[in-house]
Amino acid sequence: MAAGLGFTTFATGDVLTAASVNGYLMQGVWVFADATARDAAVTSPQEGNMCYLKNTDSVQYYSGSAWTAVGGTTSSPGMVYVGGSTFSSSSAVNLNNIFTSTYANYKVFFNCTGSTGGVMQIRFRVSGSDNSTTNYEWQRLSVYGTTAAPERQQNQTYFLPCTINTTQSGAEILVTNPQTANKKLFLGHAIQEAGQGTDQMFLTTGSFDATTQFDGMSLFPSSGTITGNIRVYGLANS
């Protein structure tokens, strides 16, 4: 890919050379589905090239050594939206291609505004398929009124962050290392809200006891369906 030449005014009768096309006319903002598509199309980016990524709604420029968010590193946000879903009466919500090597850690916000019952379960995904091996384990503390109940599970096929009900439930979850060849850690807190004086709170920690690299995750109730939304954010590495 050619380096940009800046701005020029063409006059009637000027010869439009390949260098002029590459240096002036091809230096707009290129639109790609995601960073993978961009890197496949632009194998030799030049300083000053710019692109727009649809999956993150972000504009980036090539600094000469790396693609960087417009605004520079000093003004880059600490959390960047990377994907999500709004769903209604769904038996499963699948998020693909949300974990990349750009971020080591991710925050997940889950809001359930309606359910036909059960508990919320989470699995990692890779290449569009759930990983249902028995490598999930967790410890969970649930608090209802003045009663606290601890729970420990090993060799499971999913994480269990919270119970869900027909009114409203929500969770905030930290996921570490989903894209690296390291064990994945999981830390979340959640609430099941069913009216004044009937809230139930959960604190869950867990791990995926293998080094599989993942690019997505799925949420699904143990029974019935769910309605709500989920948002996933990458946490800046520095």
What does this structure look like?
The protein has 238 residues and is mainly beta. The longest helix has 8 residues, at 18-25. Helices cover 6% and strands 50% of the residues. It has an 8-stranded antiparallel beta sheet with strand order 5-17-7-13-14-15-10-11, with no helix packed on it. Strands 6, 8, 9, 12 and 16 form a 5-stranded antiparallel beta sheet that branches. A 4-stranded mixed beta sheet has the order 1-2-3-4.
Keywords:
single chain; 238 residues; eight-stranded antiparallel beta sheet; five-stranded antiparallel beta sheet; 50% strand
Radius of gyration: 23 Å
| Mean of all residue-level pLDDT scores | 85
Going across the major beta sheet, what is the strand order?
Answer: 5-17-7-13-14-15-10-11
Spell out the helices and strands N to C: HEHEEEEEEEEEEEEEEEE
Proportion of β residues?
over 45%
Question: Which secondary structure elements does this structure contain, and how are they paired or packed?
Answer:
Layout lengths: L17 H8 L3 E4 L2 H7 L8 E4 L4 E5 L4 E3 L9 E12 L2 E3 L9 E11 L3 E8 L2 E2 L5 E9 L2 E10 L2 E5 L4 E9 L7 E10 L6 E9 L7 E6 L4 E10 L3
Parallel strand pairs: 1-2
Antiparallel strand pairs: 2-3, 3-4, 5-17, 6-16, 7-13, 7-17, 8-9, 8-12, 8-16, 10-11, 10-15, 13-14, 14-15
Summarize the structure.
The chain is mainly β and 238 residues long.
